[in-house]
């Protein structure tokens, strides 16, 4: 499949499905944290997904060990991926989840800025910047009131989440601008999963986390959902999309994830759904339409 300059119905449908899965993942992580330490949970997720994606690649006879110039970019992407999740979990110890979401979802802007230098064929027009800004306003409508509350030491966590957003963008740009763009989605993902599994497990040990402390069925079900559907299936699909479609246009869809995460929390965890949720959904949807019309 040759690279495309616009998103077609297949890409839009896949992104809607992926954002829904990533939104539900937020509720799954909360459930999993009731019995598994957060960084250890992330490490287990990467380790389990490494096994599944490797098995899937072997079943499909995807070449994984040929010399194709992806080793060093792949290791770089893996380190960026691991550092991103480490900053997310560490940053959330200092700031609230809702503040963290605001800063994490500045990532599409960093992708767009990096694309100006690294991806000359993906230059953003004024309408695309406007659409992304409108979508970000939707996220602010949903979570922005938390920025006005006394922060204390929250600025430390906020900076970590901004760093995580930059690393997320750097991972996307590394995949798009190097030899990784020419390899399979499975191999592209395995670099990141294998490296992050090792780094996150070691980090959890250094932090002194207890690991699995309440292994009830719901906790294991949550972890299984993250391993099978999120870290394996959805990430393979995401990196396949990055390989074939413009990264800047795909990134604009990521603003849907926090809104869908709040909706999932209301449906799965009984959390309150306010009018701001639906206003945010409308703004994000309008912004995505403007950015991709």
Could you list some keywords that capture this structure?
293 residues, mainly alpha, 12 helices, globular, membrane, EamA_dom, transmembrane helix
Describe it for me?
By secondary structure, the protein is mainly α. It has one domain. It has twelve helices and no strands. Helix 1 runs antiparallel to helix 9, helix 4 packs parallel to helix 7 and helix 8 packs across helix 9. The longest helix is centred in the C-terminal third of the chain and has 28 residues. The two termini are 22 Å apart. It is a multi-pass membrane protein. Keywords: Membrane, Transmembrane, Transmembrane helix. It comes from Thauera linaloolentis (strain DSM 12138 / JCM 21573 / CCUG 41526 / CIP 105981 / IAM 15112 / NBRC 102519 / 47Lol).
Characterize this entry briefly.
The longest helix has 28 residues, at 217-244. 49% of the residues are buried. The protein has 293 residues and is mainly α.
* Proportion of strand residues: under 5%
Radius of gyration using CA atoms only: 18 Å
- The oligomeric state of the chains shown is single chain
Largest sheet: none
Compressed to H and E, one letter per element, the order equals HHHHHHHHHHHH
What distance lies between the first and last C-alpha atoms, to the nearest angstrom?
A: 22 Å
**Level of helix content?**
over 70%
Average pLDDT for all residues? 85
Alpha-beta classification: mainly alpha
Number of strands: 0
Identify low-pLDDT runs: none
> How many domains make up the 3D coordinates?
1
- The number of helices is 12
> What does the overall shape look like?
globular
């Amino acid at each position: 499949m040759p690279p495309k300059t616009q998103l077609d119905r297949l890409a839009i449908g896949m992104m809607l499905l992926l954002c829904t899965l990533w939104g539900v993942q937020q509720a799954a992580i909360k459930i999993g944290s009731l019995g598994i330490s957060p960084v250890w949970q992330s490490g287990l997720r990467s380790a389990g997904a490494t096994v599944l994606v490797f098995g899937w690649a072997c079943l499909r006879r995807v070449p994984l060990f040929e010399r194709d110039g992806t080793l060093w970019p792949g290791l770089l992407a893996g380190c960026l991926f691991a550092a991103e999740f480490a900053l997310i979990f560490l940053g959330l110890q200092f700031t609230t989840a809702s503040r963290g979401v605001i800063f994490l979802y500045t990532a599409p802007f960093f992708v767009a800025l990096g694309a100006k230098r690294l991806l000359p064929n993906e230059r953003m027009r004024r309408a695309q910047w406007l659409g992304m800004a409108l979508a970000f306003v939707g996220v602010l409508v949903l979570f922005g009131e938390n920025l006005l509350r006394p922060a204390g030491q929250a600025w430390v966590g906020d900076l970590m989440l901004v760093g995580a957003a930059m690393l997320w963008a750097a991972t996307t740009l590394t995949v798009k601008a190097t030899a990784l763009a020419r390899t399979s989605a499975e191999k592209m993902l395995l670099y990141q999963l294998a490296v992050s599994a090792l780094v996150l497990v070691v980090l959890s040990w250094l932090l002194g986390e207890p690991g699995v402390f309440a292994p009830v069925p719901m906790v294991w079900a949550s972890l299984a959902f993250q391993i099978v559907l999120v870290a394996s299936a959805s990430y393979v699909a995401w990196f396949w999309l990055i390989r074939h479609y413009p990264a800047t246009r795909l990134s604009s869809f990521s603003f849907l994830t926090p809104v869908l995460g709040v909706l999932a929390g209301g449906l799965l965890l009984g959390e309150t759904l306010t009018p701001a949720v639906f206003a945010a959904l409308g703004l994000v949807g309008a912004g995505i339409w403007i950015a991709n019309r």
